[in-house]
Amino acid sequence: MSENPALTAPPDHATTTPVLEVRAITKSFGRVTALRDVTCAVREGEVTCVLGDNGAGKSTFIKTLSGYHAPDSGEMLIDGEPVRFSSPRDALDRGIATVYQDLAIAPLMPVWRNFFLGSEPTRLGMIRTREAKRIVVEEMAKMGISVRDPDQPIGTMSGGERQCVAIARAVYFGARVLILDEPTAALGVRQSGVVLKYVMRARERGLGVIFITHNPNHAYLVGDHFVLLKRGQTVSDMTREETTLRGLAQEMAGGAELEALEHELGRAAQTA
Amino acid sequence: MSAAAPASAPGAPPAPPPSDGDKDDRLVSVGRVRRLLMTPEVGAGSAAVLVFVGFTLVSPVFASQAGLANFLDPAATMGIMAIAVALLMIGGEFDLSTGVLTGSTALVTALAVTELNMNVWLGILLSLGFALAVGAVNGVMVHLTKLPSFIVTLGMMFVLWGLNYAVTQRLTGQVTVSGVRQYSGYDSARALFGSAVGPFQVSLVWWLLLTAVGAIVLLKSRWGNWIFALGGNSDAARAVGVPVMRVRVGLFMTTAAAAWLVGTLTVIRYGNATVTSGIGLEFYFIIAAVIGGCLLTGGAGSVIGASIGALIFGMVQQGMPLVGLPSEFFRTILGLVLLAAVLVNLWIKKRAMKVTS
Ligand SMILES: Nc1ncnc2c1ncn2[C@@H]1O[C@H](COP(=O)(O)OP(=O)(O)O)[C@@H](O)[C@H]1O
Ligand SMILES: [Mg+2]
């Protein structure tokens, strides 16, 4: 929308091949079908918001995209070319970086060790420690966070800062798709704002962003494209033009269900 | 807009880097000196100095050449194990089979040499292969079953314990395999594993060397980074592409290899191996690692600290009788040192994790 200066026009859907596309992904855990026939596409310079209530399958969805879970069926494509990931490393090597919700960092490890974990800069097998620390300070400064001491355990950072470390890390390692699982869920208003700004900055740098949230306000602030999951299924898939904040909130609450709830609560209040 | 829009005026340049608005998100900066004082090596090192000075004041012999050699000898074998055990504990796992395995590896070498008339070097290599296999089995089982390593390696410990007795008894009819010295290759093997300069054993060189290698691997190599991450949060490590299985299995194979080295040092030095040797030592290794700053929960610890822990162990063990303390109390003292170390570690961890205010 035009009021928001950060929102430039997303690329034309018809002409660009999505960086990452999934078609009819299904994933079950025993008897629980966490995802059923989910389809979604992510384009460069575009924020795709995946919304849904707790247990809707959002985390399972992104863990599948990032190679953490293998899907039971369905197709994944990068630049239109079918791929299969056998580990998160595979996905990373293809430029898909994920910031997980429930897989936190190693809290006692210094910031710089967490930043480079799994992709350490080495010479003759030894980490170039000084360079690594310098890069962390620089990259975090680009995000507007001053890290005075990269040796500080990352567990001493605030939740918002940790999310920013993870985002900075993904951007630094040249991710093309950045997946964020409820990065604002545990944050206050102002820290959420900081994270949302970095989401926009990643978008400006041409990354495709998948932003998971159950907060329609946050989604609408940054999203170009909204996918709604309910009990593992896509219930709607809308562009920014096709919806409004209010529409999004209604969809999430599930229209009729909300009315029923209103009714029920109203009655409960009367009988009490 | 109805939502909480960013507070930038329309038309203003988008999002200047926030330079002041986020003060309370910033890190508290802890002084470097204070941080250094909080590291486990410094704590364990100060304790070691205290113990050394204390024993020397009461009994000056403690600091004589013979006195030094006397406590450095047990400290060396303890230290070699403590280094590997510390790495494993930092990686978030335990290994209870290490003690018995030092005996098993000595027995494998001794039996291979004496029963099969094997060259001593071949026997040593065979024993290394055996140890690595044991470590790999431990590691793969822990990794695949996700069972606590405590249980898996407890099982391995009893398997080995039984085998030590059974196989040795069956093959030799005795509980000690002796006579390794008479076989070919012994003299050259002795130079590497059983020699001494004056009262100082060659094991001391191995210990110092491995302390250096272990510390460099842990602090400087990417494997070290992965070990910290494995113990700190192994799911997160896997998610960012750390080869978790290789690291975990590698750590178990490392403790097994350390046990092999200690077994080899023993069998070559004394020329024989006994079925009872090594039993119960696994807890001493863990104690040394914990005195050196390893957390039982993984994710933190120090190789140098573990070596200092082993040094304290050696000093207390040899120093107590020297200053007239009844040595029956050795385990009690060790237990108290362990408890003190755990409390100090806990305090350090709390200080390190103090969240921004
Ligand atoms: N590893 C797992 N094993 C079994 N069930 C799981 C697992 N992960 C998720 N589920 C189930 O799948 C459903 C979707 O979970 P999740 O993807 O975490 O939802 P969300 O992130 O939207 O809150 C839930 O019913 C959850 O219990
Ligand atoms: Mg979730």
Automatic annotation (TrEMBL), chain A:
Keywords: ATP-binding, Nucleotide-binding. InterPro entries: AAA+_ATPase (IPR003593), ABC_carbohydrate_import_ATPase (IPR050107), ABC_transporter-like_ATP-bd (IPR003439), ABC_transporter-like_CS (IPR017871), P-loop_NTPase (IPR027417). PROSITE patterns: ABC_TRANSPORTER_1, ABC_TRANSPORTER_2. It comes from the Bacteria. Residues 20-256 form the ABC transporter domain. The keyword Nucleotide-binding applies. CDD domains: ABC_Carb_Monos_I. GO terms for molecular function: ATP binding; ATP hydrolysis activity. Pfam families: ABC_tran (PF00005). The keyword Cell membrane does not apply. This is ATP-binding cassette domain-containing protein. It comes from Candidatus Brachybacterium intestinipullorum. The lineage of its organism: Bacteria, Bacillati, Actinomycetota, Actinomycetes, Micrococcales.
TrEMBL record, chain B:
GO terms for molecular function: transmembrane transporter activity. Keywords: Cell inner membrane, Cell membrane, Membrane, Sugar transport, Transmembrane, Transmembrane helix, Transport. InterPro entries: ABC_transp_permease (IPR001851). It is found in: Cell membrane. GO terms for cellular component: plasma membrane. Residues 1-25 are annotated as: Disordered. It is a multi-pass membrane protein. Pfam families: BPD_transp_2 (PF02653). The chain crosses the membrane at residues 42-63, 70-90, 120-141, 147-167, 191-219, 249-271, 283-316, 328-348. Its main location: membrane. Residues 1-10 have a biased composition (Low complexity). It comes from the Bacteria. The keyword Cell membrane applies. Part of the binding-protein-dependent transport system for D-xylose. Probably responsible for the translocation of the substrate across the membrane. This is Xylose transport system permease protein XylH. It comes from Candidatus Brachybacterium intestinipullorum.
